[in-house]
Amino acid sequence: MDFLTTPILASIQWGEIWLSVSISFLVLIILLICSALISGSEVAFFSLTPADQEAIGEDSSKAADTTLDLLKRPKNLLATILISNNFINVAIILISTSLSDQLLPQSDVNPTLKFVIDVFAITFILLLFGEVIPKVYSAKNGRRVALLMAIPLNTIGKTFPFSLLRKGLVQGTDIINGRVKKRVKELSPDDLADAIELASEGYEDKRDLEIYQGIVEFGKKDVKQIMRSRLDVEAIELNTTYGQILAEMLDENKISHHSRIPVYQESFDKIEGILFVKDLLPFLDKPADFNWQELIREPYFVPENKKIDDLLKSFQERKMHMAIVVDEYGGTSGIVTLDDVLEEIVGDISDDIEDEELMYSKLDEFNYVFEGKTSLIDMYKVLDIDGDIFEEEKSESDTIAGFVIEQAGKILKKNERVVFENYTFTVEAADSRKVKRIKITIHPQKKEDDED
């Protein structure tokens, strides 16, 4: 009797084992699929572009509405994904370990081999099929995966245990973030400047350092420091005929190289608008009496003391590239463009035309002749100096002529000169109103002493 029942009992036991193994395999595969879907949904949701969200918004399905609703609460969505994925991964590890124990008992297998299978093999399968492959797929098919997983994730997030854990996780991270922010000391521009100065020692790429320094100093400068003076602005009088405008556009010495031109009435203090040259292109065949005044656009006025970081934000919000600078009395001081602002960060943005506009002559290594209206910044570039001594000494002037007049306390006449540090400024051309041309002489002996 025992001889007959033993095989039957053994057969029943093996049958139970294989049934348990089959169920474990089935559950393991289902959990791997769930892990893959949830892992992929993390990439899918948070890689959706504005265009993808707009396309989803045009879909009237429940999945689309749920997707957009989940995106409005990204912290809750991320918490739901992380909690769900961790629960599933823990379940996969537990079932995989149990399955390994059933198929490979420790008494029949080398303990080292058993450890390698339990740790490395299971981890590899979990990472490959539960993380890497689904995330790569979701990165390319984000919209499809997001729509597929929106309703399941929303349902999971509302389930009692998950909703409680999700709230605790989100609130906990908010508390930690709040405390960390309180402990973080806000760096002032001066602190950043000191840090950049320390980092500059031994740093080979000076261009990067100049950009960093430009960013630090960016918020300190106002519009008056970077604007183009009204004396250097080319503008059009409101009553100018269309024929005259076309003639000036074709004249390389006139306004042909400007894309935006201020339009004034009677005097430059009464700016009526800005003419975009591109607006004239459809009307090139119009007669000389064409009413071009209808094409001018509304000007944007800014005060001289407006900070250039605020000006940059205004340009971005208004989608504009030019502003008219006015003084405290409402008169026009000049213009400022987006290029002028960006140059304070990245340095000079010039083209061939701008190089031609910088009028100067190099007589020899120590003597230069400049137009009086040349900006001090351009003078620094030509002379290859940092200009700190000029910036510290000057008051309101931005041009060479203005600086010389400030130093002399009057409008200089021809052949009069001003000595500043190791530079001598000699007026070569002037009238009763302004200094037109200046010769700059650098005294080499003093220059060498300064370098020592």
Q: Gist?
A:
58% of the residues lie in helices and 14% in strands. It is an alpha+beta fold and 452 residues long. It has three domains: 181 residues, no CATH class; 134 residues, CBS-domain; 94 residues, 2-Layer Sandwich (Uridine Diphospho-n-acetylenolpyruvylglucosamine Reductase, domain 3).
Note the main sheet: 5 strands, antiparallel
Mean pLDDT: 79
Bin the helical content.
Answer: 55-70%
Give the CA-based shape: elongated
Radius of gyration: 37 Å
Strand content: 5-15%
Number of helices: 19
Instruction: Give the domain tally.
Output: 3
Low-pLDDT residue intervals, each spanning 5 or more residues: 352-356, 446-452
Main structural class: alpha+beta
Question: Can you tag this structure with a few keywords?
Answer:
alpha+beta, 3 domains, 5-stranded antiparallel β-sheet, 4-stranded mixed β-sheet, about 60% helix, elongated
What does this structure look like?
It is a single chain. This protein is of the alpha+beta class and 452 residues long. Helices cover 58% and strands 14% of the residues. It has 19 helices and 12 strands. α1 packs across α6, α3 packs across α6 and α4 crosses α6. It is elongated and about 110 Å long.
